[in-house]
Amino acid sequence: xxxxxxxxxxxxxxxxxxxxxxxxxxxxxPKPRVSVDEVVTxxxxxxxxxxxxxxxxxxxxxxxxxxxxxxxxxxxxxxVLLALMVxxxxxxTPVPVAGAVLESLDAMxxxxxxxxxxxxxxxxxxxxxxxxxxxxxxxxxSQLQIIESVPMSDLARDHVIGALAAFVIGNARESIGAxxxxxxxxxxxxxxxxxxxxxxxxxxxxxxxxxGRVGTAVGEHYRAPRDPDNGFDFGLARLLDGLRSTLxxx
Length: 250
Known about the structure:
The chain is built from ten helices and no strands. By secondary structure, it is mainly alpha-helical. Helix 1 runs parallel beside helix 4 (78-92) and helix 5 runs parallel beside helix 7. One of its GO terms (biological process) is negative regulation of DNA-templated transcription.
């Protein structure tokens, strides 16, 4: 299958065209044992439980009770499968659109962060040249509706949504890293109890005065390198403050 064929197949599968919930269009054979939707849902469950690396076509076929090669009659490649998974996750977490502009943007960012925390593997899927399916396109539409009444260029509208999404992704990555570290068996407090004194003993205080002072204050307060949850609240509030000032919204 050429790259062009794969791209066309991806669009048809994302939009379930022409025959929703069936095997790959145009393939002859017996009636499908499962639907494309079931394949995608199972893949999401596997990624949530074991990570994206565990989502191989062979492992997914076994999970569905299919032969390894028969899975390709539903999705032609793993890359296509990943795109379908991302689009389906967007369907499961709709954008809250209610209240004032900043209130809705705040809610949008928080829902998006929770999505990444619930599905950490999303951070491993490239967002570049990602074909929009109906659910991700509906999400973008809903996000833009939040700021539809604000006088700005269409490029600026995209920048607003993109800036919030980029902040969420960065914080979610840090939060997941903190969660992974906690699962290692060594708590942040135990880690800091070892690393803090060790750093103090080797770091010349006159060379890094600000880093030493601020780092010590953070470590002593959180008993950890930092607190992603508080960092998210602080950073999101500052972003929304900037939008309030720049756009004149409330």
